[in-house]
């Protein structure tokens, strides 16, 4: 069987995968990802006990239990490039044998839930409200580096989106991936549903102007006005499509929930971002621990 070389699968002296500094037995089957490294402790304070704490660069991991449910919370830092690292390394921890450096014959599916912050693209999705992304639509290009394919609905949404925005070769080829229906169904109450757009930046790629002019100034309006059947674009941030896209290719169940901290249509910003995130964590952990 093909053994993956040391240059491709980097395992440190502790027997841990390089960026996350995690050994296979230190990861739980339910993984929560958060952008902000400080948010890891904000999540794990709800654990009944924490049994593993690791940190390397911006990747902090705590693994512990809520009741009988073993959960890992991992910080990803900001952006799809970090998600490429986190998703590949989480997958390697469960699906590659580190001794033989071979892919295991029996693959394991993780549940991967992002708990993040986001900007709203719809007036009625107000600051401090929660959004569960039905799809991740990426204008960040990450998934285009991997062979991927679409189901019929995904093909139609991404085609319609590309025509609607005119975003193609100049920026990237937009791509799309769908949330885990098995996870999404538990987040029907108290969470808006919509397509989450993932951008490769916070300022220009999300239509923010400080000192620099935009090459595509109509982007925010185009995202707000996009319609495909009952689908609307609810929000944008910087990780979801990469998680959904790589999660689908690797066979994991992924869902991204975000609290709205900025409403880009009403031009409002949350009065208390820490409290907003705290409310999302408490609500989401309550649901996760019961499924
Ligand atoms: C930008 O401020 C960051 O906040 C959002 C974006 O996706 C980006 O990572 O998410 P997190 O709060 O999870 O980091
Ligand atoms: N995170 C983002 O990426 N954008 C926002 O507007 C708020 C949080």
TrEMBL record:
<feature type="domain" description="Nucleoside phosphorylase">
    <location>
        <begin position="30"/>
        <end position="276"/>
    </location>
</feature>
<dbReference type="InterPro" id="IPR035994">
    <property type="entry name" value="Nucleoside_phosphorylase_sf"/>
</dbReference>
<dbReference type="GO" id="GO:0005829">
    <property type="term" value="C:cytosol"/>
</dbReference>
<protein>
    <recommendedName>
        <fullName>Uridine phosphorylase</fullName>
        <ecNumber>2.4.2.3</ecNumber>
    </recommendedName>
</protein>
<dbReference type="InterPro" id="IPR000845">
    <property type="entry name" value="Nucleoside_phosphorylase_d"/>
</dbReference>
<dbReference type="GO" id="GO:0004850">
    <property type="term" value="F:uridine phosphorylase activity"/>
</dbReference>
<dbReference type="GO" id="GO:0004731">
    <property type="term" value="F:purine-nucleoside phosphorylase activity"/>
</dbReference>
<dbReference type="Pfam" id="PF01048">
    <property type="entry name" value="PNP_UDP_1"/>
</dbReference>
<dbReference type="GO" id="GO:0006152">
    <property type="term" value="P:purine nucleoside catabolic process"/>
</dbReference>
